[in-house]
Amino acid sequence: MLPTNLYGPNDNFDLERSHVLPAPIRKIHLGKCLEENDWPAIKTDLNNRPIDGFAPEEVILDILQRYGIRVIRTNSSYSCSIENWGSGAPMREFLWSEEMADACVFIMERVNFSDVAHGPEVRNTHINIGTGKEISIKELAELIVKTTGFKGALVFNTSKPDGTMRKLTDVTKLNTLRWHHNIEIEEGVERMYKWYTRK
User: In the chain, which residue ranges form alpha helices assigned H by DSSP?
Assistant: First the structure.
């Protein structure tokens, strides 16, 4: 069984080592907190997933700047922009992590080797687990902005690499075996943001 990009509760939100989806959720959430001058929420976030939340506000702003959360201070308020690496053009496929688990159980309980093997040769018996749908990094960032209510700007730094342009799985075999995903990316991002802000 080969999965696509997974996301969901308990994901890695580390600003240096997180995956494609949790990183912008956290950055955009912190940008929103700055727009709202909500320092208790910012410090709670930074203490839960450590970057020093006990540091003075100016130090925190410098740290956030280093991670692409650009801040302009005007009197007592802030406006923010969120930097994303690359053009935003690469396409990615995402699957809710709990659906990955469901697909694995489904396959183990209901699929026999003979369902996926072709003749006497043992080859091409892997099963891709995914949605078979893709979204661009730019569209994903815009979806997160909409979900969080962030009002600032998204900036795409084209001096940074894009990475692989497409990573779409062919889920024909899985769908033929009668397993389909249920959680579309819009619902998944909303669920993940609700989970993240409850922490």
Answer: 22-35, 39-48, 57-66, 97-110, 113-116, 137-148, 172-176, 185-198
Encode pLDDT of 102-121 as tens digits: 999 999 898 777 666 665 55
Number of domains in the chain: 1
Better pLDDT: 22 or 72 = 22
Tokens standing for residue 44: 């709670």
153-157/77-85 β-pairing: parallel
DSSP symbols for 130-152: S-S--EEHHHHHHHHHHHHT--S
> 47: how many CB neighbours lie within 10 A of its CB?
12
Q: Residue 32 corresponds to which tokens in the numbers above?
A: 């929103």
Q: What is the pTM of this model?
A: 0.87
d(C-alpha 10, C-alpha 31), whole Å = 21
Give me the CATH number covering residue 12.
Answer: 3.90.25.10
Dihedral (Cα; 185, 186, 192, 197), 10-degree rounding: 160
Domain that holds residue 60: 2-198
